[in-house]
Amino acid sequence: MAVTVRDYIPSQGIGQALGARSSRLSNAAHAHTLLHLAEVYGAASERLLEEQAQRLEKALHLFERFYGSGPVEVFRAPGRVNLIGEHTDYNHGYVLPMALDKDILLLARPREDALVHLRNVEPTFEERVFAVAPDIPVRPAGDWANYAQGAAQLLAREWGFPLRGFDGLVDGRPPWGVPRGSGLSSSSALTVAVATALVAFNHLPLSGPRLADACGRAEWYVGTRGGIMDQFISILAQRDHALFLDCRPLSPEGDYHYEHVPIPAGYHIVVVDSRTKHLNTGPLFNRRVAEGRIGVRLLQRHYGRITHLRDVGHIPWQDLEPLLPEVITAEALRAQGIDPATILDAGRDPETDIFFVRRRCRHVITENQRVLESVRALQKGDAATFGALMCAAHASARDDYEISTPHIEALVASAQAAPGCLGARITGAGWGGCIVALVEAEAVADFERSVKAAYRTQTGLEAEAFICRSAPGAGCILSTTI
Q1: Cα separation of 274 and 408, whole Å?
Q2: 193 — phi, psi (to 5°)?
Q3: From the centroid of its chain, how far is CA 116?
Q4: How large is the greatest C-alpha to C-alpha distance in the chain, in angstroms?
Q5: DSSP conformational letter for 177
Q6: What is the rounded radius of gyration, in angstroms, for the C-alpha atoms of the chain?
Q7: For residues 357 and 240, what is the distance between their CA atoms, to the nearest angstrom?
Q8: CB-count burial class (<10 Å; 0-12, 13-18, 19+) for 273
């Protein structure tokens, strides 16, 4: 296996850190691979790097079995945990996500035609074949290929046709892959990985924020009217930093304001998986989007040409509250000239006749303020204030946006009471999935033991916890010949 440098160039320090181990390896290519993997995943643990190398080598052998020998490009896209700023991105608000070192790998070889052959290292995901085209038929809801097809269709529509396809193999298996259904954005990572490969193979002038914006819109293909946070952090991540993102575009071309925010030394971000699934493509998500848009339509009568809830963030809540009904029916909205059946893009129906407008808008408006306060706290190294803001954000997500569950509540309560925890909250779309906590570094082991024991006692389920070791953003990490 011949390996050449692509997007990640190992630093001298990493090379020295692995030098002793590499010198004992008889396979020079394997040693070279370890250096590149250290740049992506960090050099803190040789054992973890060896596991990643074995993961890659097994995937390469499987790729050769499916597609034969020849050149292979290895792309990766990380999942993410959102530290604070839940359900604000599609309201043009503020978010503060952080990339994981858990990711989706896509091994790919370009084809001369427009076909995409997609296989998965996990046999439960059946092979999929489709052509890159401006109109690709959507598969049934929940089909894993929809996230790849959404990326392919958007690029074909916006960057010309025909585009070259590829033979691909996806590796998102645990423990290195992004846990599925846990709110850590495994689906967006797959979208980003496929888009990154298609951009590379077709030499498209698309990268950075504009690529992230395109990937965000590509996911509308699956029926969820989400925002851009997941795609931005997957593409623009930096090690040991979160990403502050203002989700309002600066231009129609997809330019945005963002900045990297350091995580204070002496603390870890810990993710705890409840082992209950979330419903990111279900009707509940689209109802929340509709309720926010209804709030905007109602507020426009008093505040003119506002377009999103972030436009009224400077107005005291006591002035906004009387203008937003706590509950309103579809019939009452239609009487006011607002048709909830067409409030979502492409006329998608929110599948409800009752809307809880006031509390949804209150969450978004106050959550935006909490994100801005969190950025200021982290920039000053004020972990205590950030932890308190995380707890306040959870209360708002639970009470006003109603995205929590009894299992999540048990997990958050256990985390907030555990040793060394400064704050904890639900993360992701909600209705299951994961929580995120800020924990003193030296207390992480005690924190994990305490939370797992308490959660097991209350629910009978085994939670899974891991430290979020932020990794760089998506890209091609290796060019390989097999």
Answers
A1: 7
A2: -60, -45
A3: 24
A4: 76
A5: B
A6: 23
A7: 37
A8: buried
Question: Residues with catalytic annotation?
Answer: 230
Which residue's structure tokens are 């950025």? Answer: 375
Q: Model's pTM, two decimal places? A: 0.87
Give the residue carrying structure tokens 């760089």: 472
How far apart are the C-alpha atoms of 250 and 248, rounded to whole Å? Answer: 7
Beta strands in 125-189 (DSSP E): 128-131, 166-171
Half-sphere exposure of residue 433, counting CA atoms within 13 Å on the CB side?
Answer: 26
pLDDT digits (tens, 9 = 90+) for 401-451: 999 999 999 999 999 999 999 999 999 888 999 999 999 999 999 999 999
Query: Do the Cβ atoms of 265 and 382 come closer than 8 Å?
Result: no
Element containing residue 72 per DSSP (H, E): strand 71-84
Hunting for tokens 């509950």 — which residue is that? 327
* Separation between Cα atoms, residue 374 and residue 395, nearest integer Å: 16
Cα 322 to Cα 337: distance, rounded to the nearest angstrom:
19
Whether residue 118 contacts residue 143, with contact meaning beta carbons closer than 8 Å, is answered with no
Q: Which pLDDT tens digit goes with each residue over 89-105?
A: 989 999 999 999 899 99
Residue 268: beta bridge partners?
A: 439
Residue 24's Cβ-count burial label (10 Å; 0-12, 13-18, 19+) is exposed
Q: What would the two tokens of residue 149 be?
A: 């097809």
Distance in angstroms (rounded) separating the CA atoms of residues 289 and 292:
5
Return all residues near 245 (Cβ < 8 A) that are at least 6 apart.
Answer: 89, 94, 95, 96, 97, 228, 229, 232, 233, 256, 257, 258
Token pair, residue 477, equals 């990490």
**Which CA distances in Å does 165 have to 125, 148, 160, 280?**
20, 11, 13, 28
Least confident of 27-36, 109-118, 127-136: 27-36
